[in-house]
Design brief:
By secondary structure, the protein is of the alpha+beta class. The longest helix is centred in the middle third of the chain and has 25 residues. 45% of the residues are buried. The strands form 6 sheets. A 6-stranded antiparallel sheet has the order 7-10-5-1-19-18, with no helix packed on it. 40% of the residues lie in helices and 16% in strands.
Amino acid sequence: MEASATAQRRLPALLPPSIARLGGFAALALLGALQWQRMVEGLSSGRAVLWVLVAVAAAAAVLWADRLRRLRRACTLAIVPLALLAAYVSAGFPLVLLKPRRVDELGAGLSQGAEALAGVQMPYAGADPWPGDTLQLLGALLCVTAALLAFWPRDGDRTQPAASAGTRGYPFLALALLLILVASPVVSLGGAKPVALGLVLTALTVAFLWLERLPLRPGLGIAAMLALALAGALPLASAADGEDPWFDYKAFAEGFGPDEPLAFDWGHSYGPLDWPREGSEVLRVATTRPSYWKMRNLDDFDGIHWLEGDIRPGGTDPEGDLAPAWRSHAAWRESLRVTLRRMRTRDVLGAGTTLAVEDTARLVGPAGEPGAWRSQSEFRSGDSYTVRAHVPRPRPDQLAQSSAGADSRRAADLNLTVPYFGRAAATAVAGARAIPIEIRFPPFDAGRDGVVPHAVFPTLMRSNDGNRALRRSAFARTWALAKQLKRETETPYEYVLEVNRYLQDGFTYDEDPGEIAPGRAKLDGFLFDTRTGYCQYFSGAMALLLRMGGIPARVVTGFSPGGYSKSKRAWIVRDTDAHSWVEAWFDDWGWVTFDPTPAGTPARSQIAALERAAEVGSDSGDAASDSAGSAPRTGGVRPDLLG
């Protein structure tokens, strides 16, 4: 019996133990790195391969150091900082940031990036480089740390040089890190073939943990059986990964979530963002192409906030919200089938201008403004209805030829209420008493011809030169900026793009932006002091500048498109998609959407991803709407109109 056991122990191994574990680790790490790479838009697979090469080199260095005798411990310990430094460089970070006088900059940037990751959508494609850089560094560090753990000599092995792979390292801890590499992108972004991925992951895990233990003859047989099983399972995986998944894990998990529906306050507060941010599905919209999903128009400015205004001349007839020739653009008619999930509201969700609401058990009718509809009782989870809408989608060259503001129906959309101090605005600080006055701005072309704004003092029953009144108002700086930007443009469309570009340069997205200095109007303080805010700040400031430039504008609140689910054939909208943007009026076309909020922010990144994701074909609606998936046809939200 003892001789038989000895003979069994002496059977030649399928592979040398160190080579077997190193090969299994490299394959599993490569799978994880290529998955992790998906979380940063535009990151090449070559970068992910580089992380794995650095990790394999670190593991090989540990194996080499273990063959030394007296210097073994010192060399092994020296490998750790060198491996971490190599991971840092492989993530694309410059060595200069490690200098003592620059290390604070590095720490602040990584901290900023880590904090931002909690709120951005994946794949990250924002203007701020730190969240993407932080993801790259984290991926490289996970690979290298897993390599060190997999091959690190245990305390009991330090007395024996070249300890075998089977008796060294902490492979299960290393496996945990590698599984984080694989699983995090799948949870955030979903996967095109999750069952196939699971089979490959299982096979590589088995190879990493046990390949080194297999003797040659049984090992070849087992390897052949695994290969046959994997080959037979892949067709089944392909069927299981079809458009109708056999198990909808997302819907199953949400079934155990809180039942209390979410409610949104669509008014602008300009404090910390108070919209729900739980990642819960709130709506499903079945339609042929994506749009911004509108809940309310905020078309009045009271000197502090944008808010829902009074009924405009012409009442609530939707045609009062449309360009005169709107009927000639049949391609802009849309039909939306809206189903409420975890949400309660009286507002009817639409797109562009809602013309009619059908197929609902609720009593609905036009709200206080043309093109907006509301129910007499609350919609609840499970309620559904059909919306007929008109969504203008003119080309940039068509917008460039259109006037703005000449339509007399839009006169009220050129007015602003501002706090007036009656003295130079520079002296209007905390404690100064202001009175609200209404400023009526001329249309874009009339303003270029020398027509000045008109100021109305309701409490004093008199009128005045609006230009002079604005210089003595809380928005003196904003008025000066509007005039400066307008001087640089020739057409209304050029001015809209110039305002949008201005808001992309040097402004930071933050959902808790802090307080504006006392005595300053909040949007004016955002433009010139803090330059930090979220979508309500960006859209509110843009609408202010557009009206001051003579372009009718309003703020709109609702949701960005969300992610398209092929299995549900609908856009899956979550609470993190709640958003605010701007509509500008062009006389030939009507209200056209513009979004000044930077790309890469929770709701805005959906828009930037639409055209890219349509080519990929991912089923992102089932992945928490973290990446807009493919739709039946694209073009609903055009990046060339969004900056």
